[in-house]
Write a structure and sequence with these properties.
The complex is a heterodimer of chains A (about 280) and B (about 400). Chain A has helices at about 5-35, 40-45, 60-65, 70-100, 105-115, 120-135, 150-155, 160-170, 175-185, 190-195, 200-215, 220-225, 235, 250-260, 260-280. Chain A is mainly alpha-helical. Chain A has two domains: about 5-60; about 65-280, MetI-like fold (Orthogonal Bundle). Chain A starts with a helix and ends in a 6-residue tail after the last helix. Chain B has 17 helices and 14 strands. By secondary structure, chain B is α+β, with helices and mostly antiparallel strands. Chain B has helices spanning about 1-15, 35-55, 70-80, 90-100, 105-110, 120-125, 150-155, 165-175, 195-205, 220-240, 265-270, 305-315, 320-330, 340-345, 350-360, 370-385, 390-405, and strands at about 25-35, 55-65, 85-90, 130, 130-135, 135-150, 175, 180-185, 210, 215, 255-260, 280, 290-300, 360. Chain B has two domains: about 25-140 and about 295-360, Periplasmic binding protein-like II (D-Maltodextrin-Binding Protein, domain 2); about 140-290 and about 365-405, D-Maltodextrin-Binding Protein, domain 2 (3-Layer(aba) Sandwich). In chain B, a hairpin with a 5-residue loop joins strand 7 (about 175) and strand 8. Classes of the chains: A mainly alpha (about 280), B alpha+beta (about 400). The interface between A and B is large, with 50 and 58 residues.
């Protein structure tokens, strides 16, 4: 079928629009890479520099030499790993309960959990800090769980969004599965472990990817709940390239790009789960 | 499944091993504003030397970046009742945190401190509030008058000391293109920004004040109006538009003179291209020697259980030896009068830097200092750049600040 003139114009315009959109999204990343390879004099130059005169790869080495970066990466990795693993277990179990086990006030409780999604982290910062400071179990010292890995992991292992995501996923399972499992002698817990969990790959992958990026990028809680260099995470450490007079943009951009590496890798291998996680709940179960 | 649960439980217990070993020493927590490497190295040196001299005291050092991070950490700690023993923070924190009962008055300690009569009065003033001493300055960031030696010499112009000389020099050094646009600024002055302290330098240099006895005095203030009118007349001829949050065109080599934070000048001074071409002086004035000078101070937290030990650390950090070491390591002007000569020997421009500290005034120590910042910036916009009559702009500023104070 021959395309009309207006169709062709529309296609050209829409592609141009997409191109402009793509360039505007890519530009900050290009500038981040460019600035990470510039000298401070180039950054301060009156004429903006996009392609540096000489690529300053040593900025990356200098950025990593400024502070105890291996320690920061280990801290972030430990916190992220345990947060993701434990949160997947807790969220999927809670999601299963809300989807499959009828009990009194279940819906009210679920709505209350959903309300948690509307409360910003800043509001709960001080209560959570006070709570963890006064928990002296699990090896907490005078400052409770502040400045411990547990203190960094605990507030993020159960989240409203995760429970919601899992619940929505399990609700779509046919009820006959539960009946069949019961006939075969499974209790509630057994049904969850033997039937639901093996089928939970997609939702756990989506939640895992979102939890991973969220935890790796978390800034405020590690800032407040850690003291000293030993417990710093990468996001908190990134603020170290600024002093009273100026910001060392080249080092900051170099460190930012390195700090984001785990995210790029995870996103590259699991981007379909990332997108499906973002779309979760958009269609009524 | 029981095995899985047991595994998770075991992990949690292992993970929660205490981060800090407890011992019999006096533990003092110390947080300072900023987290740059040179400062970190300096404080590591101070703490190491202090702990060597005082083996019974253990300093637990931490830092938080300027702006929201430090405020978030402190607010959370104090709201949770934990607090911090020693706090390194800026002038803007003084009134608000004293009123919030976060800082302890240290008058008694100060009276018996060996450096009491040696600390520069302008630096000491930053840490006093309602007649009490709360903080002692360790880090000063004066605004200096920076100029291009080569450009001034080529034009045969002396370093300006008065407003008139500044105006004449700036006009002569400005280069414009065929369109009449400034290509090389005679005097670089920010049009916008977060905190336009450059205006303060001119107001103070004219003998003016924004606040007297804790009350705002914008309305009908001729000294402020004169400063604004001087800039209003001069800047269109000699300046190029930029924000104080951006790189100053002077640092990029596009200006002959400017007012700039001493620390922000470091990159230019270290640039071989400008080697020997950048000079520093006290800002030109209209009868009163003046500059703006930021200051970070050491405070004792109101919740501190060991204030004697905390002040021992503060006095160690502000000793002559530590202050000189700091000037060497961090390139920060000294805060003690007796050290100015030694500091000047480190760099020929250090004497001018010290002058800017000596005559420097910081942000006002009032609970409404954030509101003051907004109103002063708006006044600058209206009177210097916006075409509003300066007296009219001052009346508006007075009304605005009173509204902000009343809440």
């Amino acid at each position: 079928m021959k395309k009309s003139k207006s169709d062709i114009v529309f296609r050209i315009l829409s592609r141009l629009f997409i191109l402009v959109l793509a360039l505007s999204v890519a530009f900050p990343l290009v500038m981040t890479i460019s600035v990470s390879l510039q000298t401070m004099n180039e950054i301060y130059s009156a004429d903006p520099v996009i392609i540096p005169n000489k690529l300053q790869f040593e900025n990356y080495a200098n950025a990593m030499a400024s502070g105890n970066w291996p320690r920061y990466f280990i801290n972030s990795a430990i916190v992220t790993f345990f947060t993701v693993v434990i949160s997947l277990i807790i969220n999927s179990m809670a999601g299963f309960v809300f989807a499959r086990i009828p009990f009194k006030f279940r819906d009210v409780l679920f709505v209350m959990i959903l309300l948690g999604m509307m409360i910003p982290t800043q509001v709960t910062l001080i209560p959570v800090f006070t709570l963890l400071r006064n928990i002296n179990i699990f090896g907490g010292g005078d400052s409770g769980l502040i400045n411990t890995y547990t203190g960094l992991v605990l507030p993020f292992i159960a989240g409203s969004f995760g429970v919601f995501l899992c619940r929505q996923f399990y609700v779509s399972f046919p009820k006959e599965l539960d009946d069949a499992a019961m006939i075969d002698g499974c209790g509630r817990f057994s049904t969850y472990v033997r039937i639901y969990l093996p089928l939970s790959g997609p939702v756990l992958a989506s939640l895992g990817v979102l939890k991973f990026t969220g935890t790796w990028n978390e800034y405020t809680w590690p800032l407040v709940a850690t003291s000293g260099d030993e417990m710093k995470t990468v996001q908190v450490a990134l603020t170290g390239f600024r002093d009273e007079g100026e910001i060392y943009w080249n080092l900051l951009m170099a460190a930012t790009l390195i700090a984001g590496l785990p995210i790029y890798v995870v996103f590259f291998f699991a981007q379909k789960h990332f997108v499906s996680g973002l779309l979760a709940g958009s269609v009524k179960a | 499944m029981k095995k899985l649960l047991a595994f998770v439980l075991a992990l949690i217990i292992v993970l929660s091993l205490p981060a800090v070993a407890e011992d019999e020493k006096t533990q003092l927590s110390f947080i300072r504003i900023g987290n740059d490497e040179p400062e970190r190295l300096y404080w590591a040196w101070v703490i190491e030397e202090f702990e060597k001299a005082n083996p019974d005291i253990d300093i637990q050092y931490e830092e938080a970046a300027i702006g929201d991070p430090i405020e978030t950490v402190l607010n959370t700690r104090f709201a949770a009742g934990e607090g911090v023993d020693i706090i390194g923070h800026g002038i803007l924190s003084v009134a608000q945190r004293v009123e919030a009962n976060h800082y302890m008055a240290i008058d008694e300690y100060f009276e018996s401190w060996e450096g009491k009569d040696d600390i520069m009065p302008a630096v000491l003033a930053n840490g006093t509030y309602n007649g009490h001493v709360y903080g002692l300055g360790y880090s000063v960031t004066p605004y200096v008058f920076a100029y291009r030696i080569d450009v001034l010499e080529e034009a045969g112009i002396e370093v300006p000391e008065t407003w008139e000389e500044l105006a004449d020099a700036a006009r002569e050094l400005t280069v414009k293109n065929d369109m009449g646009e400034v290509e090389f600024a005679g005097f670089c002055y920010p049009q916008t920004g977060g905190n336009l302290v450059e205006l303060d330098v001119f107001v103070y240099g004219n003998g003016g004040q924004y606040i007297v006895d804790g009350e705002p005095v914008f309305g009908g203030n001729e000294k402020i109006a004169e400063a604004a009118d001087f800039l209003k007349e001069l800047l269109p001829d000699v300046n190029m538009t930029y924000s104080s949050n951006e790189v100053n065109p002077f640092v990029s080599g596009s200006g002959a003179m400017t007012l700039i934070n001493n620390a922000a000048l470091t990159t230019m001074i270290n640039n071989p291209e400008y080697d020997g071409k950048v000079g520093i002086a006290l800002p030109p004035n209209n009868g009163t020697n003046a500059s703006f000078c930021g200051c970070n101070m050491l405070f004792i937290g109101a919740t501190c259980k060991e204030p004697d030990a905390a002040f021992k650390f503060i006095s160690f950090a502000l000793s002559q030896e530590s202050t000189l070491k700091r000037a060497e390591m961090v390139k920060i002007p000294v805060t003690r009068q007796s050290l100015v000569e030694e500091y000047a020997e480190m760099d020929p421009w250090n004497y001018a830097r010290s002058l800017c500290v000596t005559y420097g005034t910081g942000m006002p120590r009032v609970t409404w200092s954030t509101g003051f910042q907004t109103v002063r910036n708006e006044f600058s916009q209206n009177a210097v750049f916006g075409g509003m009559d300066s007296m009219e702009a001052l009346e508006k500023a007075q009304k605005d600040i009173e509204f902000k104070i009343e809440g």
